[in-house]
Amino acid sequence: MMMFSEHDKGKGMNMIKKALLIVAVLALVAAACGGDDESVSAASCEAGQVDGNLNFYNWSEYIDPELIEAFEAEYGVDVVESFYESNEAMLAQIQSGVSYDLIVPSDYMVNIMITEGLLVELNKDAIPNFVNMDPEFTSLPYDDGAKYSAAYQYGTTGLGVNTALVGDDFPVSWALLFDPELTKDFPGGVSVLNDPRETIGAALMYLGYSLNDTNMDHLNEAIAVIQAAKANIATFDSDQYDEALSTGLVSVAHGYSGNMIVSIGEADNPDDFVYVLPEEGATLWIDNMAIPTNAVSVCTAHTFIDYLLDAENGATLTNWNYYGSPNAAAVPMIEEEVIDFYADTASAKTEVIQDQGDYEINYTDAFAESKS
């Protein structure tokens, strides 16, 4: 069982060793990682070059606004931010031809986008700070050699629990979302991520299956589980779930580790909250910076990646959003409490979402049916 609160964050350990353990988990995943033989040529950009404003498509609450302001001031460009709730929502935008200069897809989605020819091969000469990356994060199965992506942050997907509403004696299980006999007594109900792979995956794990299961009978069971739980699901939300939890609007929230811990720490009564990884298993993920093939300001995108891979900026990013950093040079400047929080992650029961090829559409369809 893994359980974290603002005042009980596990044993400290060296972040690099922890990162190695986390990547060891990834190495056990039999992911299909092949891409097309042909790829978009690397941009002919120079280090520090900008070629226009940056159209940045990212997850919400995922970067310190002061980092963006400092980049704008240093390079004389504007950063225009847009936000998405799931990898699938982002992919649909890119596939439809909407142009963004920089995106932050998760591990499995990087592989999908490489296969579909949607990502620019990075020009490492324009990203000199790439050398700051922990080498274990540059040889990942979804993008071996980090040709198309640069790791941004990593974390887990679990559950935030308001113990003042739920009590201290609760199962550390996905039952906190999906058992209607349990959740019917939760004031405000529960919040579930508006994300096909995360939420369908959680239901599959609750049933004892892998979140990467490709058995249609099992998928139909997952649909039934979510539909049976809907009466007590207050919202499907990937943006404000942490605030809904910390302000008492819901009793339990499904969400991402960093957002949860920041929100719990800022709550009026942080001791009333814990973040747990369910015993059936949880998602371990790595988000990445990548440039779509229809990007306009390709050089600015390279420069922004380089800017975030600076050691000091990398530490600032992690100290702000409370996610794990793949930036080895940033480690000495990362707050000890952040390191401590992720110390036990590698030993938890976790899975990495894999690209399941043609079967992916079934997860999306199942999620839509679950919510209908």
Characterise this structure:
This protein folds into 2 domains: 15-29 and 50-154 and 286-339, D-Maltodextrin-Binding Protein, domain 2; 156-284 and 356-371, D-Maltodextrin-Binding Protein, domain 2 (3-Layer(aba) Sandwich). 36% of the residues lie in helices and 16% in strands. It contains 15 helices and 13 strands. Helix 8 packs across helix 9 (216-229) and helix 8 packs across helix 15 (360-371). It starts with a strand and ends with a helix. The relative contact order is 0.23.
- Write the element-wise H/E pattern from the N-terminal end onward: EHEHEHEHEEEHHHEHHEHEHEEHHHEH
Q: Which range best describes the helical content: under 10%, 10-25%, 25-40%, 40-55%, 55-70% or over 70%?
A: 25-40%
CATH level 4 superfamily of the largest domain: Periplasmic binding protein-like II
* Broad structural category: alpha/beta
- The helix count comes to 15
Low-confidence stretches: 1-41
Mean pLDDT level: 89
Give the tally of structural domains: 2
Rg computed from alpha carbons, rounded to a whole number of angstroms: 20 Å
How many individual β-strands?
13
